[in-house]
Amino acid sequence: MDLGIAGRKAIVGGASAGLGKACALSLARAGVELTIVARTQANIEAAAAEIRSATGVRVTPVAVDINSDEGRAEILTACPEPDIVVNNSGGPPTGNFRDWDRKAWADALNGSMLGAVFMIKDVVDGMIARKFGRIVNITSHSVKAPIPILGLSNSARLGLTGFVAGVAREVAKHNVTINNLLPGEFDTERHRSNTRAMAKLQNKTYEEARAARMSQIAAGRFGTPEEFGEICAFICGLPAAYITGQNLLIDGGKYPGTF
Ligand code: NAP
């Protein structure tokens, strides 16, 4: 399918690995020029080289914390007029709410809510003026059903979800869409480290904890980052212009609700 976005410019966060890298690669295959972000310089440069050689598109790596004001400023200097923004970074740590102090909560709110809120604030008026924009926030299935060891994610991501629900309706008439993609269980380093934390808590081996997680998924398997990336690119494409303010759960049927 021609997504109609060749030549557009995108910023993709958390793009040296996992879901963000897969989104970047799928957008590059659709002909989108990329500015990709992660904190570790060597890794983001390696990802840029890989995407360039796979697709031939122009890729600019930026090694910063996307959730900091300084980092966001550097990203927007590299790509001042993005047509597409994928807000993504690492998720908050696992743990028990009894151990989280004010700083732990503030960090989670910054990383899983405010970073995306400020990025949207900085790019959305330019998108409105240019009459095209696609903003995708990678959140989590934790906004549909809480994950016991991820209380920080369960909470902070809902703040972003509420913000997006409002602002998406304000900007829709300008051909700017804002949607959240909710990954279920995708086989990435983040998923493996959460599985290690669960195994420890439940006194299981890693393999047992991984099998237990998989057994709860209707599809009987974890998702692949490539599947996720293709959906992200579709949501950024012209055929998805009438989808906005949505929370798209991509979880192989794990969530048991009818809606
Ligand atoms: P991942 O494999 O650990 O990759 C995370 C990427 O983000 C890396 O490139 C990492 O590189 C970068 N990153 C982390 N913090 C950053 C920051 N502050 N600024 C810029 N880049 C940053 O994680 P993933 O599985 O793709 O997960 C992506 C998001 O989806 C996370 O928020 C995660 O919680 C959420 N999620 C994932 C799943 C799943 O099944 N995988 C399920 C639900 C939700 P550096 O460390 O070098 O910065």
Q: How would you characterize the overall build of this protein?
A:
The protein is an alpha/beta fold. It has 2 domains: 9-184 and 226-250, NAD(P)-binding Rossmann-like Domain (Rossmann fold); 187-222, no CATH class. 47% of the residues lie in helices and 14% in strands. It contains 8 helices and 7 strands. The chain has helices at residues 18-29, 41-55, 69-78, 102-130, 151-171, 189-201, 206-215, 225-236, and strands at 9-12, 33-38, 59-63, 84-87, 133-138, 176-183, 247-250. Strands 3-2-1-4-5-6-7 form a 7-stranded parallel sheet, sandwiched between helices. Strand 5, helix 5 and strand 6 (176-183) form a beta-alpha-beta unit. Helix 1 packs parallel to helix 2, helix 1 packs across helix 8 and helix 6 packs across helix 7. The longest helix has 29 residues, at 102-130. The two termini are 28 Å apart. The mean pLDDT is 97. Bound molecules: NADP nicotinamide-adenine-dinucleotide phosphate. NADP nicotinamide-adenine-dinucleotide phosphate (NAP) binds next to helix 1, strand 2 and helix 6. NADP nicotinamide-adenine-dinucleotide phosphate is lined by residues 13-20, 37-40, 43, 65-67, 88-91, 138, 140-141, 183, 185-186, 188-191.
Features:
Rossmann fold; 7-stranded parallel β-sheet; 8 helices; binds NADP nicotinamide-adenine-dinucleotide phosphate; 259 residues; alpha/beta
